[in-house]
Write a structure and sequence with these properties.
With 218 residues, the protein is of the alpha+beta class. It has nine helices and four strands.
Length: 218
């Protein structure tokens, strides 16, 4: 089973769609196909750039694609419920226990509430997930009712996560339109995520840097 097969699996895609519909009803930002595909590709990019085997890169992409499937059950503890859903699905698909373990561990540790970068794959997933801040994740179409999460995501006009050539630094660069959200707003809701990103980067032997509007803040 490959990432492309997972990505084209009708059952998995149904669950991802329904999970995002639930979050949309709750007023959350987009957690559907755009988000999970970007997270999958970014997780794979991190692992591949750091020289991990192709098989591990493939598992990283699979973990990225499946990481938010637990929102089908509830937003609360979605990383744990998502890990259990992934465990059952991947077992039924005939994955090896070692492969399932790597994917499940990463999914179960990706959220800042309970997550810990216990291994390289989990660390890469954390960085990929928490770096996806962008305007088109906002599902609320009425700007007058934006909450702080809507304002912060809407204010980010460009987001880029890159590892330097020396493989010593991973840098999250954001362009923020301060008309919609301030840099302070960003830190108010994302400080926990940025601390987790720093720990995840350290697990990968990297230094995490956050740059907003060309100013280094972390």
């Amino acid at each position: 089973m490959t990432y492309e097969e997972i990505k084209n699996n009708e059952v998995i895609n149904t669950y991802i769609r329904l999970a995002n519909e639930s979050l949309s009803a709750l007023g959350y930002t987009e957690h559907g196909f755009a988000h999970v595909t970007l997270v999958a590709e970014t997780t794979g990019y991190i692992m591949k750039t750091l020289g991990y085997p192709e098989k591990t890169v493939e598992l990283a992409k699979i973990a990225g694609y499946l990481h938010d499937i637990g929102n089908l059950v509830n937003r609360v503890d979605h990383s744990q419920s998502g890990a259990l859903i992934a465990f059952r699905m991947l077992t039924e698909m005939g994955y090896e226990p070692e492969e399932i373990g790597m994917v499940v561990t990463a999914i179960g540790n990706h959220d800042e509430g309970t997550g810990v970068p216990v291994n390289a794959l989990a660390a890469a997933l954390i960085l990929a997930d928490k770096s996806d801040v962008r305007r088109n994740r906002v599902q609320n179409q009425d700007k007058s009712t934006f909450d702080i999460h809507d304002r912060v995501n809407y204010s980010v006009t460009k987001s880029e996560l890159k590892i330097n050539e020396a493989h010593t630094i991973i840098k999250l660069k954001l362009s923020v339109d301060t008309h919609y959200g301030s840099v302070m707003d960003y830190f108010e809701i994302f400080m926990g995520r940025m601390i987790l990103c720093r720990k995840a980067a350290e697990k990968l032997g990297l230094q995490f840097k956050l740059i907003i509007n060309e100013q280094q803040l972390i």
